[in-house]
Amino acid sequence: MKVVQVVSDHHAKIFLNFPAALFADDKNYIRPLDKDIEAVFNPKKNKFFRFGECERFLFYNEKNETIGKIAVFINKKYRQSQPTGGIGFFDCINDQNAADFIFNFAKNRLQEKGMEAMDGPINFGERDQFWGLLIDGFSEPLYAMNYNAPYYQELFENYGFKIYFNQLCFGRKIHASVNENFVRMHDRISKNPAISARRMKVNELEKFAADFTEVYNRAWASHGEGKQLTKVHTLKLFTTLKPVINEHISWFIYENEKPIAMWMNIPDLNQWFKFLDGKFGLWQKLKFLWVKKFKTNKKMVGLVFGIVPEWQRKGIDGYMIWEGTKHFRKTTQFEDYEMQWIGDFNPKMIRIAENLETEVTRKLATYRYLFDRNKEFERHKTL
Q: Which of 41, 39, 40 is nearest to 5 (CA)?
């Protein structure tokens, strides 16, 4: 078996094209945008190169056919109980020997750099993109979500990887019945003249960025692995999302003009990007605009749901959910709602998802492999 490090444009193209060939007959596969994958490996675009290193490799059989690929990386800010490296962007034919060769190669590469374990498949970047192995719910992936064939689970687990934590996605039908408790909460809160609900408006991005930042920092930043956001960071994010923001599906709740809750949703971009075959040049951008206008997107994605501490467990969640749901049922054509994944180590967020009357739609797994096979394996600690 031959190993080639990806350093040339030619091999980078093979790295991008291999999964599309592997899943050519899979109706659920949606090719990620090439630019999103390449950005991970570009030191000018990925800030994680400031405190880490990343390499990617292709693997060939004796006939010089591509049989697999992987990225191997170290993130010095990824602090674990032992020095732990990462592997990601793994793809492989359905052959355990080939997978074992790839995993052994990655293990040896990381051991040479002082690592004692490897997690995967994860991203050399934030957790909100390209993180985890799909093990249940093989439907079309959400934008920037990993997708793989069912046999990948066997390749990982037969090698010796164990689940470090599960990643749960929750969803529901937009027009499914809503819990009567939410309706009662809405009726009760509606009588409070200090409380108001507003949907997000594109022409007021700066205001909503400030409101989002305030609610997020008070609701989540002090919880578990949360981190403080700045208005500048949020406004940059909102500006990036501006072309795809739907003004009917993101909601903010106020008490006397002070933000106390928010429910951020966007259309599932993959319902448009799946027509672009991974490309996003000038022609594809024009095609995207055409598709966006004429192809009905029936799926929306939940990004963040948050309530400031003093208003939690007081019915604001029911008020916001029913206020928003009543509106976007009338004003949009969305039929399905799915939330980005929640780690099974985060029971607080899982309870929020369950309170939205959702059910688990798909499950991904973050695996860990300890190089010392006699060391006791521990799952991710519950927050």
A: 41
